[in-house]
# Entry
Amino acid sequence: MSGEIENASVALLKYAGLLLKKGMQEDALLQLEGLLANAPACGRAHYLLAVIRASLDEPEQAILHFRQALAVTPEDTRALNGLGVALQQAGRAGEALPCFEEAIRLEAGYQDARINLASLLKDHGMLGEAETILADGVRITPGSVRLNYNLANVLQSQGRSLEAVERYRAALAADPDHLDARQNLLFALHYSYRFGDREICREHIEASTTAPFSPKPEEEAPPVRPPASRGRIRIGYVSADFRDHSVARFIEPVLAHHDKSRFEIFCYANQRGGDRVTERLKALADGWREIRTLDDRQAARMIAGDGIDILIDLAGHTSGNRLPLFARKPAPIQITWIGYPDTTGLSQMDYRITDATADPPGREMFHRERLIRLPRIFSCYLPDPEAPAVAPLPSLTSGRITFGSFNNLAKVTPEVLALWCRLLREVPEAHLLVKAKPLADGQVRRRLMEFFEREGIAAERVELHEGHPTTLTHLAHYGKVDIGLDTFPYNGTTTTCEALWMGVPVVTMAGSRHASRTGATMLGNCGLGNLVAVNPEEYLEIARGLAGNREALAKMRSGMRERLQASPLLDGAGVTRELEAALLEVAPGPLPT
# Structure
């Protein structure tokens, strides 16, 4: 009798597996539950049932069945990995960690478990440990696309862009069409002077020839245009950042000031869920579309069906972008703006919005798009309305100057650190405050402190801070900074705006490309062009000069918000009018009815 049950179980398992391959989860679930009623110790059935429950977002049920599967086969690495994933789904990350570790101990080459473990460690700020886990995996499987890609991301988050570029290239050597690796590589190239403008442009154009940006003709969505007599020009904005995100700080004032008598505004949100910022932005749009769950063809048909005249990308090659959607040309005019400091490389992208300081004449040769230069500044900023008041100049009470940078650590390259160390040597009483989320990791902190030690900077002169859980506490921390230090060749953007709003002047160094000139255009438009250097010596001279005149620093700090409020940087209405004038120039002409 037991043999008959065993044979029936094998047959049912095969049938359930076939149903799963066909996507018939509910039918497979019924078969597996029936099997377990007769053979409750069937580990494989528990495993398959756990996989289904996890896919249905029922992590507690999945955990139960994974554990029962492991009770039968305790060294089943797939079940251990699945249990770890389900525990994470259930918000029990601490319990997930040993599951992944045990799976790797049993099967060192099991990439899923290794990547899941590294991702968990990275999410909890343990970047050094994540790096070790992934680097060990690359040594076992050097050609692994996924291991190289994930290792590159961990390296990039630590500010090790050159090493990250090497790993992204390794991933792309194995899979040239890996979209995330390709786009992260393009982003990483901007962090180092080693990569020139021509090389970066060439890489962007090469990316546009890969499969994700080359839809087959039969997959393209034919444009659908309503009669041109409807009156208003339809503008569509595409972003994954219609939420509490830096991009929202630059697009909200534009949405708020658009002339609705001339323009009809649609927002295409490629994001999961939303927040209070999302609700504000929704109220400013005439049409709001959720496209995260739509593939590129479906989203293109939606946009074409909405009759969008001008479709504007707000992401470039950054996270959550939908550039492959733009490759289908769902709108007659397509523009990229705000979210990315360079060309998209796409021939289907008609224009890129910038200004004459961020992209001086001659930069056209490094773009696939035609450049639209707004007359003053390429975008405007909306300060957080709940930002704390400007604090008094901290050096008046501390007795010492504190330089500070709250930029993404990926921008804090060895060249940046070396110049900051020179500054500290030349202003011997000064301290340096660097704040970035990856500094929560002990190994990352040690690496930076060892750099300062090699440069002869005493540890007590440097404060490394891991950041704050809320925007308000983050902004309040500028109360400890006398002078902001910008990064190069990738300048800060949101961080510079935040520092200025909190009364902190920022010293920047302008380079040749947009990423290294945002500081110049923002400061110049605020009447602070004297803080813009063109070489390291000028950078040091400006910073020394500020540090040597605390009275002038205090006066600048107290009047900074009034300065910004009178500047183009905060002129949402004016910048929007200038944008609209540019859009009217490039809008498609009336179509015959």
Notes: DSSP finds 26 helices and 13 strands in the chain. The two ends are 78 Å apart (CA to CA). The first helix runs from residue 2 to 21.
